[in-house]
Amino acid sequence: MNESVKKVFFKRKITYLVIFATLIAVYVISASATEFHLSEGLASFPKAMAWIGHNLMPDEKAMERFPKILDKLIETALLSVAVTVIAAIFAFCFSLFGSKATGFNGIVNRIVRIVAAFFRNVPDVVWAMLLMFSFGQNILTGFFALFFTTFGLLTRAFIETIDEVSAAGIEALNASGANFIQTVFQAIIPSAMPGIVTWILYMIETNIRNSTLIGILTATGIGYLFDLYYKRLDFSSASLVVVSIIVLVIAIELVSNLIRKVIL
């Protein structure tokens, strides 16, 4: 091994050592500032699991509330699907102006990407808190909170999808004299559809989980029931809500995987 190679490996070791030491220092400072003790947390974990096993078990009283829980669960799922589909339509139309493959002006591309980044980087919980001042605690607030974040995420994802898979087809159609509408329907949609559907399915799964938290803030859906039972210290009913959400998310994921196999 020559000297130049040794120097490269030595520099890498120093870099890794500095990064590792920095992470350790950040952890120590953060733990000290927040009075977090890892040993105490690990020691309390068995007791916490025992408490969960004793208190968070659905009982007969909780099962009597299952029809109401199921009704709110379906409401949450339908809201998530509606939000994702509508956001996907707007995001796809918007992404056509942000994709470099479609040939729009660079300024237009940049504006679209900035707008998408803004909506994407503001969490849906923050949107919900802001919108509650205007719309109050209702399902419309939850809809728009999820819509804005979903729109930003899907716009960015669709732009990247179009740029990756549609460039060659777009160039061929442009060379043959096709207009913009023909390019969209004959090149972009056929080639980008598998990726677009995958992202839509992923966002449906994500929005079902996020809508639970949004529901706590907006007093709607399954999140409202969980918050209600939890504040009443009705842990058995709250646990049934959690189990129902887990089952729904797993079911949606299984259906999504099946759809992906059929499409891809």
Order of helices and strands: HHHHHHHHHHH
Helix content: over 70%
Assigned CATH class of the largest domain? Mainly Alpha
Domain module count: 2
- Total of DSSP H or I helical runs spanning 4+ residues: 11
Strand content: under 5%
What does this structure look like?
The structure is a single chain. With 264 residues, the chain is mainly alpha-helical. It has two domains: 3-55, no CATH class; 60-263, MetI-like fold, CATH 1.10.3720.10. Helix content is 88%, strand content 0%.
Set out the fold topology.
Blueprint lengths: L2 H32 L3 H18 L4 H5 L1 H33 L7 H16 L2 H12 L3 H27 L1 H9 L4 H39 L2 H11 L3 H29 L1
Task: Name the descriptors.
264 residues, mainly alpha, MetI-like fold, 2 domains, 11 helices, 88% helix, 0% strand, globular
Brief description of this entry?
This protein is mainly α and 264 residues long. The chain has helices at 3-34, 38-55, 60-64, 66-98, 106-121, 124-135, 139-165, 167-175, 180-218, 221-231, 235-263.
